[in-house]
Design a protein that fits this description.
By secondary structure, the protein is mainly alpha-helical. Helices cover 54% and strands 0% of the residues. It contains three helices and no strands.
């Protein structure tokens, strides 16, 4: 009976003592969000802007509290500006011609 409990001493990750390593870490998400935000100013802003916001938000740990990494915060801010500019550009591209000309 004594042999059942000592298997976790050799493998500390088996009992949830360390974080999951399946997904991208927060630093990578922050950098990806920053790249999406900068690229969104030049092309596909309506897609890359919200992608930058999501990546930055996930990189911040889905919270505004506590210390925030700089790339994640910049990604959220630039992504919001990028999305807003893309929406203004789309609204201006429709025009007021009502489809007549």
């Amino acid at each position: 009976m004594a042999g059942f409990g000592n298997g976790t001493r050799r493998y500390p990750r088996s009992r949830g003592r360390m974080g999951s390593r399946t997904g991208p870490d927060r630093a990578t998400l922050g950098i990806v969000g920053l790249v999406c935000a900068v690229a969104g100013f030049f092309a596909l802003g309506i897609i890359l802007g919200p992608a930058a916001i999501v990546c930055g938000w996930l990189a911040m740990g889905r919270s505004w509290a506590g210390p925030r990494p700089v790339p994640a915060l910049v990604a959220v801010a630039l992504g919001a500006i990028d999305t807003l500019l893309a929406l203004i550009w789309l609204a201006g591209a429709t025009g007021t011609g009502n489809g007549l000309l």
